Each structure stands twice: as C-alpha cells, then as structure tokens.
Amino acid sequence: MKIFKRILLLVAISISIVIFVNYPKLNMIAGYSAKNTASSVFLGKRSLAFTDLTDNNFSPVNLATDVVNKDKKFATASVANLLTRKAIYREGLGSVLTLQKSDEIADYLTPKRTTPDNSTPYPYGNGPQKDTIFKTIDYAKLNKTVHAIFGKNQTRAVVVIYKDKIIAEKYAKGFSKDSRILGWSMTKSVLSTIFGVMQYQNKIKVTDRAPIASWKNDERKNISIHNLLQMNSGLAWDENYDKISDATKMLFLERDMTKMQEEKPLVGKINESWNYSSGTSNLLSGIVRSQFKTDQEYLDYWYTDLIDKIGMNSMVLETDLAGNYVASSYAWATPRDWGKFGLLYLHKGNWNGQQIFSKKWADYVATPTPSSKGIYGAQFWLNANGQMKDVPKNMYFADGYQGQRVYILPDQDLVIVRMALSWMDENAFLKGILESIH
Predict the structure, then answer these.
(1) How far is CA 330 from CA 107, 335, 394, in A?
(2) How far apart are the C-alpha atoms of 240 and 244, rounded to whole Å?
(3) What is the C-alpha to C-alpha distance for residues 69 and 38, in angstroms, rounded to an integer?
(4) What is the pTM of this model?
(5) For the chain, how are helix, strand and coil distributed in percent, rounded to 5?
C-alpha cells in the first residue's frame, strides 16, 4: 500500500510539474482559440462548428474547447479545464482578449464609417461590373489554374483582376464575395499605406526619427520611421509562433500592443539588421496614434482617408484593449475589397482620379530593405531576387499567415488575391495565370 501511495504521489507530482511548465503555453493556446473564434463567428459570420472544423483545427490550438455566447457576444476557450480565456466582440472594433473582468464592461470609442456605394460597378463601387471579355485571355487555362489550388490547398477565395476587371473568381464552400476573411499580416501593408497617406498630406515624414520619448537618451534615438517600416531598426524581437515568444506574448497577453517593441534594446546596427517583427508594426500603429489630438481622430482616420475612401467598406480593423489598431495582424475584409487595396497600388495611389498617396510611395514600398536579400520592402514582400523564378521581379505583395496574399504585378496590369488556410506553390500558380494572358 505504501508503494502504491508513493507511486500516486510521484504521478501527481509529475503531472503538476508538466502543468506548471506548460501553463504559459496553455495561455497562448486558449488565447488564440478564444480570439479567433470570437472574430470568426461575429466578424466572419461563421458558425462555431465551422470555425472549430477549419480555422482552429490544427495542433496545438485544437486542444482547446470553444464556447460562444451569441447574445452577449463573447467566446471562451478552455484547455483541459486548466485555463480559460475569454474574447469579447465590440461592434466596429472586432474582438479582443480580456485580461480582467472590468475589460468586459469598459467603455470604448468606435470609428465613424461611410455608407457603401452599392450602385457604381466594381472596383470603384460595390455594384456588378459590366461584362467584359478580353480576346487576349485564355479563360480555360486561367480557370484551370485557379481551380487547381482549391481543395487540398485549403484555398478559400481567389480573385483575379486585370485592367480593373475581375476575370476569374472562385470561392470554397461556405464562402462568397461577401465573406470577410482575416488578412493576418497583410494588415502590415495597410499600416504602411497609412504612412503613405499621411506623408502625402504633409502630416508626417517617414525619414524623420521615430517620435519615441523613451529612446531620446540612447542610441535608439537614431531609428527613423523609415527604418521601422523596413523592419531594419536593429531592435531585438523574437517572431516565433511555435513557442512562447515576443510575438505570442504581445498578441495574447498585452493590453497595449504598441509598447513591447519600444522596450526592446538594440542588438544590431540601424539600417543593417533586417528582422521581421510584428512588434514593430504595432509600434508604428502607436506612432500614428500619437499624431492625432484625440483617440476618435485616430480611429476615424484609417477609414476616412484610406479604407472607406477606396470603398473597402467590408474591412474592419481590430484593436487591442488600449484602443490601438493591431496593425500587425487583425484586418478583416472580403476578397474583393482586398483586391481594391491591390488596385490602389497598381494605379500608384490614384483612385478613380483622386490621388490618395504619392505615386512615388508605390515605388518606395517595393524598394528592397538593406540586408533583406531583396525579399522585403516597407511592410510589403518582394520578388526582387527572383525567388519566384517565373514571375516578374517587380511583382510585390501583401503577405499574411496561412497563405493570405494580394499580389501586385505592375507591368501586367494585374492584381491577384488569394485567401486560404495553407501555403501553396506560389510560382506555379502565378505562372499559370500569367501564361493565360497573352
């Protein structure tokens, strides 16, 4: 009996140690699942069952058990009844993880939105586009290329836009042209564009030093906004989603996501140390906020001067608990509206006759960051080193987790949107589309 009791004690101790060691990971797992569930159900308008079967059905997130309260608009996720996280939905701001009880009843501001234009044909409105058949397009090959990436590649949507016309469009079961889909890190490209708009309006100069008070007395004072946009500041940051890292702690444990990167030391030379960092993007969101006298102006500006201005009326930018747009990760929009974003760059900032940002800004975001080996610009990814060998080197794109993409091909007058749950052979896909246009 004594031996048996000792064995039980050892088992209990072992289990306790395992729980203690992995408890922080449980926090991340439950946090991801609760936040993703709340956003999927209330912003994406999907069911809990569909969300669990698709968006949350990968290890270790699938260890969480999700519950949704539709009346009170929140979702909870629990891992083996050891830890539970809660995400609340706020109309106009999306979903956010709570950190304490008071977060659930806190007052919050919401951005003012404009009324969508549903009569003007796409892309300059949301109305039906006029039928256009291009004799130079092999539609059979085009559609075959598009259809090939559905199914096993978990593609959810593809929109191909040529000369301002949708020439191919397909959606997976459960999705349509009206489905909002999370762009993940494509949000960084939206953030970059905000800086382009602000610079065009003489509200900011990206060549100026970053206005961070805590950096004034050390070497970090020499970091420019430009360095931050190019992820080339030299600041420490661990962008790893397979473990507890700076990125996961920021997204699932921080009230104010703009602060973590600010607090990091220099570990490399400024303008010589490219390091991909979601913390940098959220720091930049905080810099945008600092340019406005009120929080309401900050919230409104992204929509009035960019998003709604080009008719991306479906887009919702989610904020953290402190009211900052989570510019690293959390923009939702329909595939067609993501296409409008690409078209704005294809036309070098001109939207139906109105200049939104300088023509030079499109060139700026597609200029390779020093030490990035030609793969990164200013919050956009590049093909400058020809890693996609059958695709023009001046193609650049917004890139998000699990294969979210907005490809911009200037010479071909082409924008391609792909939303998904997994990556694919991008070179083969783009090559197939390019070969279908003569």
Answers:
(1) 21, 15, 27
(2) 8
(3) 9
(4) 0.94
(5) 35, 20, 45
